[in-house]
Structures are given as structure tokens and as C-alpha cells.
């Protein structure tokens, strides 16, 4: 999957993956901020998600990365947030008081670019990537956010019936990529097909959404 795929999706407004509402698992499971220190959350492939606002409103400093300049600028304009920009190599930083979005390629990020983060919120990053890119994604994420706890949401279905994105990411794959470096706690399994008739129309007979919290060993 090439970068142009996502640029074209935003340019042509094919952004059905964008959700205006706050992700319900954030409100249900996300740890409360430690008010005695500054805790930073990294949101890879963040788009213009309202989850960034929820995290900020709940006491966290938020840093996202997003390939599409359209998505980044719409996040700030849609929410009437003033920002400044600075360029660091191939990356452009859009900075507000408690929210920074880095516009550029996730794989160009280094731990120096990112700084120290306490958590990673991966709502839809892994399921946005085909299998051959997910291994590289997980490896790079574990490198640049080595000390962070990972909050990961996946989808599981028969990939032979429906092609992604969103792609199917099995529980076995989570253990394959993260099992050696993290304690994996599955928080919830939800039958998404029961409330998503459009996926039934695509021929799926099962579709599970799974939520994990991964803690570095």
C-alpha cells in the first residue's frame, strides 16, 4: 500500500474510516492521568480524530502523526484551534497548547522526534495496514515508544471474504509482534457484526472487535 492511497482518500473525501464521535473504549478503559506529572500520549495515523481532544481534555499531552496535510489542517480548523508550524527535516509539526500533530510518514519518525511518551493509542493504525506492512509498523512503534503502554483496538474477520482496509488482525498476530516484549491483557471482545449491517452486506459472517492493553516487560 503506497502513500498515494491515503492522500487520494483524503483528497477525494473517501474517509468513511473517520469517526466524529469519541471512541467508546477510551471512555471505558483509558487510564486516568496522573495529575502530579505530565503524561504524553502518542496517536499514530491519527487522521483528524476527535479522540485527540478527549485525551487532551482528560489531562494528557497529545502527539499524533498523520500522513495527510488535509487531515491535519482540518483537525485544527474543525475544532477552531490555533496552531504554529515548524519543519524538522521531512516532518512538519503543527503545535497547539496540548496537542501536536506531526505531518509526515510514520516510518520517518525517530524516538528523538517523538520524545518520551507514557501511552500509545492505536485505534485504527494496524487495521489500516496490510500484513506486509504491519510487522514493520509494530517493530518501529516498539522502537520509538519503547517505554510506553500500548492501547490497541483490532478487527478480526475472514480476509478472504472482504479485502481491507480495514484489515483483519488476529489475536495470534498481536502475540507474534508483541508477545516477547509486552504483557498482553485483552480487555474486551465485541461482536461488531451485530451492529454493522453494511459488513454483512459484504458477505461477512463474523466480525470481532478486540481491545488490548500491552505493558512493556
What does this structure look like?
By secondary structure, the chain is of the alpha/beta class. The protein has 2 domains: 1-10 and 37-117, Rossmann fold, CATH 3.40.50; 123-217, 3-Layer(aba) Sandwich (Rossmann fold). It contains 8 helices and 9 strands. The protein has helices spanning 3-11, 24-29, 51-57, 69-78, 111-114, 131-144, 171-178, 197-201, and strands at 40-44, 61-66, 84-88, 91-95, 99-103, 119-122, 149-156, 182-191, 208-216. It has a 9-stranded mixed β-sheet, with helices on both faces. It is globular and about 45 Å long. The mean pLDDT is 91.
What would the keywords be for this entry?
217 residues, nine-stranded mixed beta sheet, 26% strand, Rossmann fold, globular
Summarize the SSE layout with pairings:
Layout: H1 3-11, H2 24-29, E1 40-44, H3 51-57, E2 61-66, H4 69-78, E3 84-88, E4 91-95, E5 99-103, H5 111-114, E6 119-122, H6 131-144, E7 149-156, H7 171-178, E8 182-191, H8 197-201, E9 208-216
Parallel strand pairs: 1-2, 1-6, 2-5, 6-7
Antiparallel strand pairs: 3-4, 4-5, 7-9, 8-9
Helix-residue proportion: 25-40%
Q: What summary fits the major beta sheet?
A: 9 strands, mixed
Strand content: 25-35%
User: How are helices and strands ordered from N to C?
Assistant: HHEHEHEEEHEHEHEHE
Instruction: Please indicate the count of domains.
Output: 2
CATH class division of the largest domain: Alpha Beta
Overall mean pLDDT stands at: 91
- The name CATH uses for the topology of the largest domain is Rossmann fold
Radius of gyration: 17 Å
Tell me the distance between the termini. Answer: 32 Å
Number of helices: 8
Task: Report the strand count.
Answer: 9
Amino acid at each position: 500500500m503506497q502513500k498515494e492511497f491515503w492522500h487520494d482518500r483524503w483528497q477525494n473525501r473517501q474517509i468513511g474510516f473517520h469517526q466524529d464521535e469519541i471512541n467508546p473504549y477510551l471512555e471505558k478503559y483509558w487510564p486516568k492521568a496522573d495529575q502530579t506529572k505530565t503524561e504524553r500520549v502518542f496517536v499514530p495515523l491519527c487522521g483528524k480524530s476527535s479522540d485527540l481532544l478527549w485525551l487532551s481534555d482528560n489531562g494528557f499531552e497529545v502527539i499524533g502523526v498523520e500522513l495527510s496535510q488535509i487531515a491535519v489542517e482540518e483537525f485544527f480548523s474543525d475544532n477552531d484551534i490555533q496552531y504554529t508550524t515548524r519543519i524538522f527535516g521531512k516532518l512538519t509539526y503543527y503545535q497547539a497548547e496540548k496537542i501536536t500533530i506531526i505531518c509526515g510518514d510514520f516510518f520517518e519518525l525517530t524516538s528523538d522526534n517523538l520524545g518520551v511518551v507514557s501511552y500509545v493509542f492505536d485505534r485504527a493504525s494496524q487495521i489500516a495496514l496490510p500484513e506486509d506492512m504491519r510487522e514493520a509498523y509494530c517493530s518501529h512503534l516498539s522502537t520509538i515508544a519503547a517505554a510506553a503502554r500500548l492501547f490497541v483496538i483490532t478487527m478480526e474477520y475472514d480476509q478472504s471474504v472482504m479485502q481491507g482496509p480495514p484489515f483483519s488482525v488476529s489475536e495470534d498476530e498481536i502475540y507474534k509482534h508483541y508477545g516477547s516484549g509486552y504483557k498482553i491483557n485483552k480487555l474486551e471482545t465485541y461482536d461488531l457484526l451485530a451492529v454493522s449491517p453494511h459488513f454483512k452486506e459484504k458477505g461477512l459472517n463474523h466480525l470481532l472487535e478486540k481491545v488490548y492493553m500491552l505493558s512493556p516487560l
